[in-house]
């Protein structure tokens, strides 16, 4: 099976955790999209759920395939969030934000009783950081924020290019109206320290380190499906 097929298998396995009447956070990315399409089939078959999407892109897909939606304002407490990830470590700490939705993804995950990550096995790492860390930043003072991020990283012994994410010739803009800086620091041995240091920078809106949010990961590989707790 290729990576796309494995993502579908992980998404299919996650459906077993979705019960009738659940309030669901629904992630962003290709794995989450596979989940939405499979969920829509269940909804068509009579399953009742209400979904809170983590991006405009996911909202549009849910509307297209018939998954009923709410907002986090109307449904501020969720039973379960199903979302993908860019990296997953053995403690279920994650790097997310490859699709640019990390802020809403983190808010929705934090409002959920449980978060289940769905992924193909290529996302499993020993230590986070091979995937560049997405950092969502305010447009104002971009250069100053960039410098502050580099300084905070250096204090922790980390360094590497910090690149403004682009879409063609223009900066990528998140659903919240912010920019994303992708920080290639390499291995991040102390994720909590980096998380705290980034949160202390005023121009940083949020970052893609998800620590203590995921309750389980359903990982599909060539040897089958594994659930990591
Ligand atoms: C979006 C995300 C995605 O979950 C992450 O990028 C994984 O994407 P995919 O399922 O396409 O591999 O964090 O912001």
From the spread of the alpha carbons, the general shape counts as globular
Oligomeric category: single chain
Q: In terms of structural class, how would the helical and strand content be classed?
A: alpha/beta
> What is the average of the pLDDT values?
98
Q: Evaluate the radius of gyration.
A: 17 Å
Compute the number of helices: 6
The arrangement of helices and strands along the chain is: HEHEHEEEHEEHEEEEHEEEE
Strand content: 25-35%
Low-confidence stretches: none
Distance between the termini: 24 Å
Which ligands does the model contain, each kind named once?
ribulose-5-phosphate
Total beta strand runs: 15
Order of strands across the biggest sheet?
2-1-3-6-14-15
Largest sheet: 6 strands, mixed
Helix fraction bin: 25-40%
Task: Please name the defining characteristics of this protein.
alpha/beta, four-stranded antiparallel sheet, globular, isomerase, ribose-5-phosphate isomerase activity, NagB/RpiA_transferase-like, 229 residues, six-stranded mixed sheet
């Amino acid at each position: 099976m290729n990576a796309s097929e494995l993502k579908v298998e992980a998404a299919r396995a996650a459906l077993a955790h979705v019960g009738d009447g659940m309030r669901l956070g629904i992630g962003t990315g290709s794995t989450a999209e596979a989940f939405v399409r499979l969920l829509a089939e269940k909804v068509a078959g009579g399953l009742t759920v209400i979904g809170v999407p983590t991006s405009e892109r996911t909202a549009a897909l849910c509307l297209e395939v018939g998954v009923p939606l709410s907002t986090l304002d109307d449904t501020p407490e969720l039973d379960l969030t199903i979302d993908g990830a860019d990296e997953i470590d053995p403690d279920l700490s994650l790097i997310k934000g490859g699709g640019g939705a990390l802020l809403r993804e983190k808010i929705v995950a934090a409002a959920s009783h449980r978060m289940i990550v769905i992924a193909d096995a290529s996302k499993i790492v020993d230590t986070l950081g091979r995937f560049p860390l997405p950092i969502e930043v305010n447009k104002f003072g971009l250069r100053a924020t960039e410098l502050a991020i580099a300084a905070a990283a250096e204090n922790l012994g980390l360094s590497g290019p910090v690149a403004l994410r682009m879409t063609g010739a223009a900066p990528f803009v998140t659903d919240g109206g912010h920019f994303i800086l992708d920080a290639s620091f390499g291995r991040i041995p102390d994720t909590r320290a980096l998380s705290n240091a980034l949160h202390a920078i005023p121009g940083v809106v949020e970052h893609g380190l998800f620590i203590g949010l995921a309750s389980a990961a359903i990982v599909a590989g060539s040897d089958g499906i594994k659930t990591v707790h």
